[in-house]
Amino acid sequence: MRILLGITGGIAAYKAAGLVRALSELGHEVTVLPTENALRFIGKPTLEALSGHAIDLDLYSDVSAVRHVELGQQADLVLVAPATASFLGRLAGGIADDLLTNAVMAAKAPVVVCPAMHSEMWENGATQRNVRELQSQGVRIMPPASGRLTGEDSGIGRLPEVEDIISFALGPMTLTGKRVLVTAGGTREPIDEVRYIGNSSSGRMGLEIAKAARDLGAAVTLIAANLESIPAGMEVLRVSSVSELEQAMNRGSDLLVMAAAVSDFEVANTYRGKLPRSQAPKIELKPTKDLLAGYAAKHPRTFCVGFALVETGGDIEKTARQKLWDKGCKVVIGNSSKALGATETDVLFVTADEATPLSGSKGTVASEIVSRVSQLLVSQGN
Ligand SMILES: Cc1cc2nc3c(=O)[nH]c(=O)nc-3n(C[C@H](O)[C@H](O)[C@H](O)COP(=O)(O)O)c2cc1C
Questions:
Q1: 226, 260, 276, 330: which one has the fewest Cβ atoms less than 10 Å from its Cβ?
Q2: Containing domain of residue 342, as a range?
Q3: 86 CB under 6 A from ligand 1?
Q4: Where residue 358 sits, what CATH number does that domain have?
């Protein structure tokens, strides 16, 4: 996820360093945007080194790039921590007088704000009115924690701990401590040393599933069949053919999501070298192993999720339900061949008890699938 992290000029700004590190370790792309006053509390070099990018706070530098709009619009989530009383007032009043307030107001993504200040400032009528105003605009405000404040005093107003901010901003980390194996992409079965039988899977759904599991705190291993770009924050095993995929799957997991398009056939008479045009071969095919059924039988404690690709016009629910029993899966995602290579998708989430349609971009549908699966995983005590 691309996160724009705003940091404002309160004493707790130093804690934002831990937040940058933790979000980056979870695989998120973090763009740090402090206010001028935040840099009185935490050094620019610290934030630049931790985030891996240079920080330029001048609203009017590199004007042709219109940076405040770019920064706001490319974010999937805007998080401001800590947020000063002054920042709450500026945002609530629509006063865009620095790069951060401009970028936040240009953002289309959800905005989460974590105020931190002395108890008196937090309880001040103006602050409370600004909080209510921001909430009415859809901004999510994380209430400050109670405890030791800047000096000797204590009370409400502390910036909550990093893990609590992450779980408030990103939702509960329901897959923390779980090993999740995701296969994505399409396999290739060699005909000779340069040619293969493949399929038109883009791998997008599998990649989105892996990202969604990572974002819920899972330790993800992605088995990538012929994929170029891979998201950060996960272990990656690159494979090409069904037999390489089978070898890579030889490991335990709490959850397997088999999203790769796996060839049903392999070439029995593979040619060593490159076949010349004059020697057009008769290709003999033999069935490949059913990797999902094999994995489910060998790992009975793993929660297995499969995909069923149904020809256009076919009965998706019937096919998916049949696959549930045939493969030993807990969930089968039924979809039609229209989904191959597309960015939008319509699927049917099928378990023994339900068949729920889900639709939208592959990212949205993947997040919904992973969130539903994680709930089932927890409720079934896996
Ligand atoms: C030592 C010190 C600590 C401060 N801590 C806070 C704080 O925790 N919360 C807050 O709202 N303001 C705090 N302030 C006041 C802000 O720095 C001030 O309102 C500033 O204008 C905020 O700028 P910004 O919102 O653009 O970052 C503090 C000021 C000083 C001198």
A1: 276
A2: 179-379
A3: yes
A4: 3.40.50.10300
Same domain for 239 and 200: yes
Question: Does the reported pTM lie above 0.85?
Answer: no
Virtual CA dihedral for 249, 255, 259, 264, nearest 10 degrees?
50
pLDDT, averaged across the chain = 93
DSSP state of 343: S
Residues with Cβ within 8 Å of 117's Cβ and at least 6 positions away in sequence, in order, are 10, 84, 85, 127, 144, 157
Structural domain count, the chain: 2
Q: CB of 23 within 8 A of CB of 30?
A: yes
Ligand 1 close to Cβ of residue 42 (< 6 A): no
User: Mean pLDDT lowest for which of 49-53, 82-86, 144-148, 289-293?
Assistant: 144-148
307 pLDDT exceeds 80?
yes
Residues 6+ apart with CB under 8 A from 233: 25, 26, 27, 28, 214, 220
β-sheet bridge partners, residue 182: 222, 257
pLDDT of 334 reads 95
Nearest CA to ligand 1 atom 7: 10
Spatial neighbors of 228 by CB under 8 A, at least 6 apart, are none
199 as an active site residue: the answer is yes
Under a CB-based contact definition with an 8 Å cutoff, are residues 239 and 225 in contact? Answer: yes
Tell which atom from ligand 1 comes closest to the C-alpha of 84. Answer: 11
Candidate from 57-66, 257-266, 328-337 with smallest mean pLDDT: 57-66
Q: Choosing from 199, 226, 269, 335, which is the catalytic residue?
A: 199
